[in-house]
Amino acid sequence: MIRSFRASLLAVALVAVGSTFAQAQPAKTAGDDPVVARVNGQPITRSAVLEFYSQLPAPMNQIPIEQLLPGLVNELAARKLLGMAAEKAKLADDPAVKAQLQNAREQVLQQAYLDRKLKTELTEAKLKARYEELIKAQPPQEEVHARHILTASEADAKAALDEVKKGANFSDVSKKRSTGPTAATGGDLGFFTKDKMVPEFAEAAFKLQPGQVTETPVQTQFGWHIIKVEARRKAEAPKFEDVRSQVYEIMGNEVVEKTVADLRKDAKIEQYDWQPPAGKLPAIAPAPKKQ
């Protein structure tokens, strides 16, 4: 509830803020990180604005930062004011708030530790080496390039097949008789691997050689098909650039698991028997009875 309320405030701030900040004085420099605004003397730096912008959700993160700059600074100023008010109210001394601050601190440190570990371990050379291993472990699949004529009944499929057997152009017959969405392109399905089609269709298609047509109609859940294979080939391995994120995720999970396992080896972890006080756990509603 609070988060959605803050998100609404942010959206309003970014869209509706006026030209107040646009008319402000030029930013003063503090080392390599210019100060773009001050709130009761506390600075808002350029790096803080850039970091805030990088965390914006879609579609706001698609808007050029120049257009959002007044709203971004306005929102950061509002957050500083709220923080100052909380400090003045001595909320940092509240036990519940202390616990939340400690949890937040631990989470930031955990993430920072893992980020640095990943940056050190997952070099580009290691990612490419794992990519090569994965490619070698997965032989390229065979693909066929096929066309089909899809009809609602077996009789219509046989009529279409008779035309093809008499010498009619397969593509033309598909355009005339097929009920499927590919009729406009002469039933062209492009290249596909066996696992991309329903079993009945795939089995029939992969038995054919280039230029061959199924001898009888093939029935699937979509209707009746006449299939022609145009070509066969081995599927090309995906390029490293196209699957880099997947390789990174695989290796990243391994690094995290190993890091935690190594830390556990030298850690003393004690667990105690504990039951939560009665009524402190949410009740689980029974499953509705079947009628």
Structure explained in plain terms:
It is elongated and about 90 Å long. With 291 residues, it is an alpha+beta fold. Helix 4 (95-121) crosses helix 9 (240-265). Strand 1 and strand 2 form a beta hairpin. The strands form 2 sheets. A 4-stranded antiparallel sheet has the order 4-3-6-5. The protein has a two-stranded antiparallel ribbon with strand order 1-2. Helices cover 49% and strands 14% of the residues.
Shape: elongated
Q: Beta-strand level of the residues, as a percent range?
A: 5-15%
Note the run of SSEs as H and E. Answer: HEEHHHHEHHEHEEH
Q: What percent of residues adopt helix (DSSP H or I)?
A: 40-55%
Strand order of the largest sheet: 4-3-6-5
CA-to-CA gap between the ends?
A: 36 Å
Mean pLDDT comes to: 87
In CATH, what is the class of the domain at 142-234?
Alpha Beta
User: What is the CATH architecture descriptor of the domain at 142-234?
Assistant: Roll
Helix/strand/pairing category: alpha+beta
Annotation, overall tally of beta strands: 6
CATH T-level topology of the domain at 142-234: Chitinase A, domain 3
Number of contiguous helices: 9
